[in-house]
Amino acid sequence: MLDIHQLNIFVVAAETLNFTQAAQLLHMTQPSVSQHIQSLERHFDLSLFLRTGRNLELTDAGMALLPLAREAIELSIRTDETMESLKGDIYGHLIVGCSTTPGKYILPHLLTNFHRKHPQVRVTCNVSPQTDALQSLVEGDAHFALFSMEYGNYPDIEAVSFLCDPIVLIAPLTHPWAQREEIEPEELLDADFIMREPSSGTFHTVTESLKQVNISVTELRTLITLGNAEAIALSVQEGLGVGFISEMVIERICPGRVAQVNVRGLNICRNIYIGHNSRRPASGAQAAFWNFLTSEKINLQAVGA
Fold first, then answer.
1. pTM of the entire structure?
2. Mean pLDDT over all residues of the chain?
3. Which helix (H) or strand (E) holds 51?
4. Between 20 and 30 A from 8 (CA), which of 132, 216, 239, 264?
């Protein structure tokens, strides 16, 4: 009979292609990892890894086993969680993928409220670019994903929009715009901008919203590109330029230390979604989290407050 523990060791070894690294991740010794892999190979009477010096690669048999092993491990986890749930409490482990700003400023609020209802559920948050978070959802490496981009290219994802995150233009307090109630859209072309990277949700939202005022993002004079909103907020505070960031970041990083600038005719609001893969069976913990999100949707409007 197959041993789920051995299958888990195989999956980690297959993902790292390094028995020593796998042993560290599993809190085991390297010889023990090797012994379990050899036991699996004897069970199947097939080699799962090609060993060439210090290098490892999966054999055809190993590549065929990998997705099956992942499914078996997931089923084992769901079985344990379901049986535990029959005792009256929800148990389990949730993996949530998210992009940077939602991960830092929205997830803590969600998870705190969920934990009060279901204290036996553990949660792991993987912060990554949102395209990676969505791909993890599709491939089953994450149970939920928090994101702001359109997800029509992912037909298996079911999502709810529960928050509109205002994106605002900020400038140093010494900037001429800081003293004005409103600027004209064409004045944007005269400023030095600190921008997010093109793959970010903020950049995409700003790009689409600028079309409201007949401005292309490529026309803006980009001085610096930075990988997170906090760095933009602090750079603007230091006087390096102006930039677009989430209003919730301003409230937490630099309240009163930058000026919010109104642009005539420009209103930018980024929809934040949370989704799951509707084609994958949900464990008790996953079903409880999804029910929590949908039933608490009205209360979640206060997340960004």
1. 0.64
2. 87
3. strand 49-52
4. 132
pLDDT average, residue stretch 285-305 = 65
Among 136, 64, 65, 132, which Cα is nearest to 95's? 136
| Domain 164-269, CATH number (from 3.30.420.270, 3.40.190.10, 3.40.50.300, 3.40.109.10) | 3.40.190.10
* Residue-level pLDDT at 88: 60
Q: What's residue 85's pLDDT?
A: 64
Amino acid identity at 81: E
Q: ∠ at Cα 304 (300, 156), nearest 5°?
A: 55
Give the domain ranges of the chain: 4-83, 89-162+271-302, 164-269
Instruction: List the structure tokens of 30.
Output: 């390297």
d(CA 205, CA 53): 49
Least confident interval from 1-15, 99-113, 169-183? 99-113
CATH class of 4-83: mainly alpha
CB 17 within 8 A of CB 56: yes
CATH of region 89-162+271-302: 3.40.190.10
d(C-alpha 274, C-alpha 294), whole Å: 10
